[in-house]
């Protein structure tokens, strides 16, 4: 299996630190609002990477954090007149709902930055003791030039950074020994959450959070560190500087980064009006369509999101699901149990598609080619099964299809749709709960229906519903 390592800029053979095990850290979202489709890409991509390692028999320890203390969270809390903790807890729950809708497996551990402050303080103290950090008026800075390998991930030169200006500059630069030094700890401002430390009452810088959480839950050395390519510099570069200076070891063997997501060939931004949350997409499409769309291109390539491409993804996904349903329909009516010799020969032929799938995934997780192999299998199923096929033959083909789509996180064995009468009964219960001002129960029913693909719309004429 070969992985493209951002550090070496080449594909490298994957050799785990410990045989049969993969230690993998993926930078998670900052939770101050609903996640957007740009956040969704690394979630889907690296969940698929994890699934493929598990398919190959690896035991994967998959850690992905939530950044739950940040300027954006504090700003949102101040706007709403609530605590930062209330904002972060709310949007962690909403994020988990969206991840479930996209069939992203729960991480082995989702550490929260606010629960790991003690470890961050210890790591900062280690960096001070080793001469890699210094304190000035309650702020602790990292001595960037002291770390000899700085720039090895982003392939940036420190002198170019210096002359290129302000990429790394932060507030309080006059206090710094060098303009390239970055913040490890900052004193509190009025109205901000803060923790006691030896330097000041304050909070950690963003970069130190991941260094500490990765170390605590995976150890000083890990196999894979992953995230969006926007994190290469300065976030991942700074993580390397902190972790390797503190621990005295190489931090991560492989660095994986997914490409950017554009909307109609333009960068996503609220000012352009092309900003979409996963929740908004979920009102128009089953989130399985979004997942299938995200995997239709190689993860390192830039990906363009458009209504036309989503429709194409929807149609492609339907072809796969329909093939699975066709097999199940034939299985129910199959007259014979065991495979014929002719069918056995066909199964041998069908296994070529599994090999093609594995070859694509072994080559730096090429999901686009892996999906092409799934379509080849679907075509084979559609042209080589009928009412005379044996149970064993049909079940073998279905098992192959499920095994491959499961790696991609695509669900082909769908639950039965809710009946209209059941939907109406739940809507009536929700209306009764609202009259009784039991809004918690009313929200619970809405979420329950949404999870089953039923979208409610409250209008003057009453509650309307539709299937996603």
TrEMBL record:
Boundaries of every Cysteinyl-tRNA synthetase class Ia DALR domain copy: 356-419
GO molecular function, one term: cysteine-tRNA ligase activity
E.C. code: 6.1.1.16
Name the record gives this protein: Cysteine--tRNA ligase
Motif ('KMSKS' region): 267-271
BP-aspect Gene Ontology terms: cysteinyl-tRNA aminoacylation
Principal location: cytoplasm
Subunit record text: Monomer.
Short motif ('HIGH' region): ranges: 29-39
Localization (cell): Cytoplasm
UniProt binding sites for Zn(2+): 27, 210, 235, 239
One GO CC annotation: cytosol
Family according to the record: Belongs to the class-I aminoacyl-tRNA synthetase family.
Record keywords, A-Z: Aminoacyl-tRNA synthetase, ATP-binding, Coiled coil, Cytoplasm, Ligase, Metal-binding, Nucleotide-binding, Protein biosynthesis, Zinc
Binding site for ATP: 270
Catalytic activity: tRNA(Cys) + L-cysteine + ATP = L-cysteinyl-tRNA(Cys) + AMP + diphosphate
Claim: Plastid is one of the keywords in the record: no
Cofactor(s) it depends on: Zn(2+)
Keyword Nucleotidyltransferase carried by entry: no
Coiled-coil intervals: 416-443
Cofactor binding description: Binds 1 zinc ion per subunit.
NCBIfam families, alphabetized: cysS
